[in-house]
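Teaching assistant here, posting this on the class forum so everyone can see the example we discussed in section. The complex has two components, and the goal was to see what a joint structure prediction looks like when all of them are supplied at once.
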Amino acid sequence: MVSVLGMAAEAVAGTRPTGRLVLALLIGAAISVGLGVYGRTHDPTGEAIFTLFFTGTINLKAWFTTAALTLVGFQLVSAARLYGKISWPRRVPPWLGDAHRLSGTLAFILTLPVAYHCLWSLGFESDAEMTRRFVHSLFGCFFYGVFAVKVLAVRARSLPDWVLPVVGGATFTTLVALWYSSALWFFRQQGFPSF
Amino acid sequence: MFKRIVRAVEVVALLLAGVFVVLLFANEPGSKEGDPGAAASPGQTLPVIVDPAALFAQHCSGCHGDEGQGGFGPRLAGGAVKTSYPNEADQVKFVTDGFGPMPAFGERLSEAEIEAVVAYTREEL
């Protein structure tokens, strides 16, 4: 897995800017479609996974998604400061770039058990009349694709300036949509904080 | 030092992503677990040991909540399931055959287990 992603990053970095962007988009699309196909074809198990100190898997998922959204919110603010879109703090802390990367990585890690339960236990909701589940399923698959594009775009050089903000913004927006259609829905149904 | 931590976490993230993919394919649901009565020869009755609470915790709570309070799947507790399925046999058929996001548990659980867990959702939750 590591070597596959490493090769993908090298392949993206080793082509012309337009080619790099197209290649990154193709890889992201393949990941999104692959997850969707798995979720659609896999027979959902309906089983719970680990709960850690939460009372149930659903509670764990709601809180992990909320934590991931918080970290991605920090990513948004820190990226805005790194690119000079906001001027607070007045001096950019030397650790801010690393903190930006760390928060994104931790957010990604937090989403993995959530996505695993969604895909393995629940599957892809293809019935458009089940609006919340359908939209959540679509955004869930899209998230990992757009996240992969962002990671590849960060490592590729000479991409157009608009690429990173657009892809980063899409990643953030997708996670907001996922949180809105799952964790927020859960807290509204079960009450807050529902650990 | 901080950079090293960041890189280490990134490596861990990549490894976890790999584990994620492997588990999706490796952790397929197995065959019917403990099929009570399946080994009995004609005319012979074996004692059936089914723990419906454990079955519910393993197979149902992921969607319907630990206490059947609802989650991804609808609420079952407090008589809600009896409202949806006044006839217990209809609920057994639904659990056995599945529909939409509801898995077909007839492929994983024995009849006795399904009947036991259905009774549990109707009487105990």
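For the discussion questions: Chain A has one domain: 2-190. The two ends of chain A are 33 Å apart (CA to CA). Think about how each of these relates to the inputs above.
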